[in-house]
Design goal:
about 400 residues; alpha/beta; 2 domains; 12 strands; Aspartate Aminotransferase, domain 1; binds pyridoxal-5'-phosphate; about 15% strand
Length: about 400
């Protein structure tokens, strides 16, 4: 495993990430093309509007949209997109946000789409001065809820594609777009964590937002793609509330390079490599008492499979979250995907691994279970204890254990 020494130089813990693309772990491994492009541009000046226009061409080519630009992250992209829908290209209005005065400022969103991706999506919308109009109830939104929620004050409609949203009882994207389009309401689609760069535009979405630092393997950044007039209106927010969400030249060019690398990538080969990691764990962990394995296809049908590891506390001698914590506390720290751990399972996500890490992960899980069974030191704390501990630890920052 090649490490470049910087973690050691700064005394930072080495992390093996089997949880996916998480902001709290540094998102993703940046592809070499993006690293090189970002480093190369650092010592030059460049006209940012020209660089962003170049990015627009590449984003348009990759997404099928008319135009695009690079933002600080997807959350910023959502914020700027909503702002653009409210102000258009009126520079005075752009400077006045978050005061919207007489502008239509309502954003309709299905209640089941009001997610938290590390911060509440409501806040990214409300920062702009917009007001949220939740459509339906979390597990049920009907077409008539949406139709009736749209009115004179509606500035935009937001649709979220994600495993975080409620998966049942929602209005599908195509119908959502049709209803909004019939009423002249622009649709913004949050696709931050999706592989599919083209469908929403094909379906008629007006603006689509992606993360640069998730599957694309770009530097920290976001991508806004869509209708040229709205992309321009969103871009111009950099003269207003976009300022505290600034992206630099290295992030813009790095995102462009990551998109170009994505187009050239042998996605089938990547998928097969990930399957090999899963197969390794399947063999390694299949016989471990107290663990039960299942292959799990991605919730929103991204071409990625994960290993679902059920932990039977009676047989394994510890709760799923205790196993996750012990893996995290070791060296290197192994971070499993634990957002659904209340159900007694976690996931191993192969998308950020480099060859060799899969053996460390498999071995450590087997060892921790064996140890817990031998020592009988598990089943000591509940999930709510764990949450309280985790919050208490967060509140101690910058004292990090
Ligand atoms: C990750 C994520 C975001 C936030 O993306 P950032 O680029 O990290 O700001 C927003 N929406 C969804 C659905 C996400 O998965």
């Amino acid at each position: 495993m090649k490490e470049n020494g910087i973690l050691e130089r700064y005394g930072l813990m080495r992390v093996i990430n089997v949880s996916g693309t998480m902001t709290g772990l540094g998102a993703s491994r940046v592809v070499p093309e993006a690293i090189e492009a970002g480093a190369e541009i650092q010592s030059s000046f460049v006209r940012i509007d020209e660089l962003q226009a170049k990015a627009s061409t590449v984003i348009a080519h990759m997404t099928g949209a008319e135009a695009g630009f690079v933002t600080a992250c997807s959350a910023a992209g959502i914020c700027l997109s909503i702002s653009g829908c409210m102000t258009g290209t009126n520079l005075n209005r752009i400077e006045l946000l978050p005061d919207t005065y007489d502008l239509p400022n309502e954003v309709v969103v299905q209640a089941g789409h009001l997610i938290n991706y590390g911060a509440p999506i409501h806040q990214a919308i409300r920062l702009t001065g917009a007001r949220i109009v939740p459509v339906g109830t979390p597990a049920l939104a009907n077409f008539y809820n949406l139709e009736d929620s749209i009115g004179e004050q509606t500035a935009a409609a937001l649709f979220v594609v994600s495993h975080h949203v409620v998966q049942e009882g929602q209005i599908a994207l195509s119908e959502f777009i049709t209803i909004c389009r019939d009423r002249g309401v622009p649709v913004v689609v949050d696709m931050a964590s999706e592989y599919d760069l083209r469908s929403p535009i094909e379906l008629g979405a007006d603006l689509v937002v992606y993360s640069s630092h998730k599957f694309l393997g770009g530097p920290t950044g976001g991508i806004v793609a869509g209708r040229k007039d709205l992309v321009r209106a969103a871009y111009l927010q950099n003269k207003g509330i976009g300022r505290p969400m600034k992206i630099g030249k290295e992030g813009i060019i790095g995102t462009v390079a990551a998109l170009e690398a994505w187009a050239r990538r042998d996605h089938q080969a990547v998928y097969e490599c990930e399957q090999q990691y899963l197969n390794h764990w399947w063999k390694e962990l299949g016989g471990v008492p107290g663990l039960r394995l299942e292959k799990h296809h991605d919730w929103t049908d991204n071409p990625i499979d994960r290993l679902k590891v059920f932990v039977d506390p009676e047989e394994a001698g510890l709760y799923a979250w205790e196993l996750a914590d012990r893996l995290s506390a070791g060296e290197p720290s192994i971070q499993v995907r634990d957002d659904l751990i209340e159900h007694g399972y976690f996931f191993l996500d192969p998308c950020n691994l480099v060859s060799g890490e899969e053996t460390v992960v498999g071995q450590r899980i087997a060892d921790e279970v064996q140890l817990a069974r031998a020592k009988g030191d598990g089943k000591r704390y509940s999930l709510s204890d764990r949450k309280r501990r985790s919050v208490a630890s967060l509140l101690k920052w910058p004292d990090v254990s």
